[in-house]
Design goal:
- By secondary structure, the chain is mainly alpha-helical.
- The chain is built from five helices and two strands.
- It has a single domain, classed as Winged helix-like DNA-binding domain superfamily/Winged helix DNA-binding domain (Arc Repressor Mutant, subunit A).
- A two-stranded parallel ribbon has the order 1-2.
Length: 101
Amino acid sequence: MNTFEKIYEVVKSIPKGKVATYGQVAILAGNPHWARVVGYALHNNPDPSSIPCHRVVNREGKVAEVYAFGGGIVQRQLLEGEGIAFLPDGRIDLEKHSIQI
């Protein structure tokens, strides 16, 4: 399995109603230094219907401004549709909504 495939497998395992940070995905994919690689992989997501890249956020709990499939507003809408609440400053409460590793 190549690096992107490892990342996609991790992202597929993030359940609805939860998020993971780029760093968490990198750790689970096998290398804690891959956070930027995670971003590249998700930008090139070959199958958005089965690889829920909208569930990956930055270390502060913010959505990507240039979310690959429609911008940060679309990413936020998808997450809210899965029951994820945003704080008044636009971040996600990672203690509440982040996967545990």
